[in-house]
Amino acid sequence: MQTRRRVLGDTHVNAAEVQKNSFDAPFQELITEAAWGHVWSRHNWTLRERSIVTIALLAALGHLDEVAMHVRAARNTGATREDISEALLHTAIYAGVPAANSAIKVVKNVFAQLDASGE
Questions:
Q1: What does the pLDDT look like over 95-105, one tens digit per residue?
Q2: What is the DSSP letter of 45?
Q3: pTM score above 0.70
């Protein structure tokens, strides 16, 4: 949970916890333990590196809501806008231009929201 909060921020995690019910509680437990407790907490890569790879993978798979969430989280991992741009260039070449193009639209929207809010 510490890593999840460090990457996604307390506001996001608190909202997820408030919305959790008996139906999705097992899923929330799974992602907290497996993704955040195991993969994201390993010491082989920095949070920045994990963030970049995660954004590229999510974009490649077309998981655009998750792309937006991880672009917002990049503020907490040290991944820059330039890092995200490079990740999406790789996505275009290795996973396809349509996947990258869709993700770029989402990322630009997130950046605009962050700029408008002063974040």
A1: 999 999 999 99
A2: S
A3: yes
Phi, psi dihedral angles at 41 (to 5 degrees): -95, 0
**In the chain, pLDDT over 70 holds for what percent of residues?**
100
Helices (H), ranges, 1-119: 2-8, 10-19, 25-30, 47-61, 64-77, 81-95, 97-117
Judged against a pLDDT cut of 90, whether residue 119 lies above it is answered with: no
Half-sphere exposure of 58 (CA within 13 A, CB side): 20
For residues 88 and 90, give the distance between their C-alpha atoms in angstroms, rounded to a whole number.
5
Burial 69-80 (b: 16+ CB within 10 A, else e): bbbbbbebbebe
Listed as own residue / partner, the contacts of 38-45 with beta carbons closer than 8 Å and 24 or more positions apart are 40/3, 40/4, 40/7, 41/3
Q: What's the residue count for the chain?
A: 119
Burial 4-35 (b: 16+ CB within 10 A, else e): bebbbeeebbeeeeeeeeeeeeeebeeebeee
